[in-house]
Amino acid sequence: MTAVTTAGASEAVTGTTRRLLQRQILPLDRDFEVLPLYVDPSTPDLDEDKYVVGGTRAAKELNNTRIRQGTGEAEQVRADQILDRTRLRLDAGQRLSFAAYFNAFPASYWRRWTIVDHVTLTVSVEGAGATVIVNKSLANGNSQRVDSAVTEDDGINTLTFELSLTPFIDGGWYWYDVVAAENAVTVSAEWHAEVPADRADHGTVDVAITTMNRPEFCAKLLQQFGEPDVAEFLDTVFVMEQGTRRVTDSEEFPAAEKALGDKLRIVVQGNLGGSGGYARGQLESVRKGTATYALMMDDDVVCEPEGIIRQVTFGDLAKQPTIVGGHMFSLYSRSRLHSFGEIVQPWRFWWKSPEDSYNQWDFATRNIRSARWLHKRVDVDFNGWYSCLIPRVVIERIGLSLPLFIKWDDAEYGLRARAHGFPTVTLPGAAVWHVPWTDKNDALDWQAYFHLRNRLVAALLHSSYPRGGRLLRESLNNQIAHLVAMQYSTAQLRIEAMEDILRGPEALHAMLPTRLGEINAVRREFSDARLVADTDDLPPVRVEKPSKKDLTEVPSRKAQLITAGLAPLRQLRRPRDLSRTNPEVAVPALDAKWYRLASFDSAIVSMNDGTAAALYRRDPQQYRELLKRSVELHARFLREWPQLAERYRSALGEITSPEAWEETFKPWKETGDE
């Protein structure tokens, strides 16, 4: 781990070649909202000798002065300091750390999943007197200085650090800090590794984007694939067009077409949902057979193109064929990470982040060094298909997506791949910006049907517990919660989801083109699904007796249990007369919990996305009928689970085969509309 000041890199040894793993990058558009993901200005303990090794006393005093004046806690990077995609200029006396999401090196992931056992960090610094300090962290978050070096020439100095991956079995990162002395300096860096000669060439990618009525968003995404550094990694970019407002009609499309040229292919088909779109992309990629990977990507994302290169590089050097996913940052708060990894909790069979991690983590307020949990490697069960690289050999071995329309197709695929010996890795440093799930209303609207149906299908295929563990009990509890909250449309859709599963796996393909329209027709029969944009269009709130309850107060666990026991009985009582003509309360989406709504006979409830509201009315007769059907269905699933599971598992290979999907796509292939 000795630093060597040289002009060149180490010579390749016989039978090996040098591959670039990762390079220092900066925001493409100089967007300062995302700058904390690339550079961390708050380098700690700057006045300690370890951060000014070889530096002059004047440089040390200048930095200490900045700390005393309060500027040392958050050195600001100006737009003019970002010289280009890879080079950053530091002012005299300035110090910056590259312990940031896109520029720290996720050593534990490379150690666990790839053939790489040591890396070479090469930092190029133009200017004399600058100090470069290399650090590493352990899985518990403790950090250590590894090595340092000082630039001696006014020209370009190449500082090389040989770094082992041995200490990173459970977690940890490498990163480097740079301290300028009396003069401004320019910094760039690369991480390389010596790999076997048969891993010298990088793989290529077929991108599969499913889009529906987002022409401008999708066209702008396509332009990002035209970045020069990404072009050589692309084979074909497939856009599965499933909407009526087509990407080709966007004013942005000519620029996308120019950027991609003959690599762009638009495939037009009916609305078969995300799984139908991604399965078409997988099928086209497998049939074409020229790309190493197929990259599943949503149409409503902003992409960091460098992440694609990193996903391909990681996949190329993986010990075995590996699905390589990226993270999702919020499109509305772009320094905020949705989740650091996703698992399927076996007993509940529900997707979630691991217990020792955090969701909605904002890197603008807490950096990598200050968050101990970020240093432990997170091993995942699946990666969302907003950015997920799948080796073609995996698709050929385990088949295409399940015909689920939306929800659980990505999770099921990860579980299926793992059962065949193909792991999934969510790689730090590869990410997109996406609309966060928390701003959607998909637990209550038409998507509730797909949430439950597809969760149950995935559990029938992959649950290791008898009768799905806790899944059926939790499903019934959730159903009763929807009923006591007057969410009858959601309860009805969940019933239809369970009934459709009983039709068997053979019906999944047939339902793809038509089921969405059918369940939307069902929803329109219920008042709680009829949305209004302006609450003034609903009757005014009036109550016979004002409630003393604070709707913002979260009741204790004991109080919630009491409510859970009494609320189902209360639903059988006759509603208050005034509640039939006027809602009793207006409840914001944030406060619309079942234990609050259960005490009212009618309510105006707003949606999570803030665009509309609905009128909920308690209906004892409807409650009785839906509760009876719900209990009967859950009891039937409990009895018939083993037979259902065997039925679905036996059919898995057939319903995910290219041949089955080709039959589903045939109506559009026959018309030649692509």
Number of domains: 3
Question: In angstroms, what separates the terminal alpha carbons?
Answer: 55 Å
Kindly identify the CATH topology of the largest domain. Spore Coat Polysaccharide Biosynthesis Protein SpsA, Chain A
SSE class: alpha+beta
CATH architecture of the largest domain: Alpha-Beta Complex
Q: In terms of per-residue confidence, which ranges show pLDDT below 50 for 5 or more consecutive residues?
A: 1-13, 45-74
The 3D shape can be described as globular
Q: Output the CATH class name of the largest domain.
A: Alpha Beta
Q: Figure out the total of helices.
A: 18
- State the helicity in percent bands: 25-40%
**Largest pleated sheet:** 8 strands, mixed
Number of beta strands: 26
Radius of gyration: 28 Å
Strand content: 15-25%
Mean pLDDT: 90
The main sheet orders its strands as: 13-12-11-14-21-16-22-15
What's a quick, concise take on this entry?
By secondary structure, the chain is of the alpha+beta class. It has 18 helices and 26 strands.
What do you see in this structure?
- Helices cover 32% and strands 22% of the residues.
- The protein is α+β, with helices and mostly antiparallel strands and 674 residues long.
- It has 3 domains: 3-199, Spore Coat Polysaccharide Biosynthesis Protein SpsA, Chain A (Alpha-Beta Complex), CATH 3.90.550.60; 205-342 and 380-439, Spore Coat Polysaccharide Biosynthesis Protein SpsA, Chain A; 447-623, no CATH class.
- The strands form 6 sheets. An 8-stranded mixed β-sheet has the order 13-12-11-14-21-16-22-15, with helices on both faces. Strands 1, 2, 3, 5, 8 and 10 form a 6-stranded antiparallel β-sheet that branches. The chain has a 4-stranded antiparallel β-sheet with strand order 4-9-6-7, with no helix packed on it.
- α11 packs antiparallel against α17 (620-655).
- Residues 1-13 and 45-74 have low confidence and may be disordered.
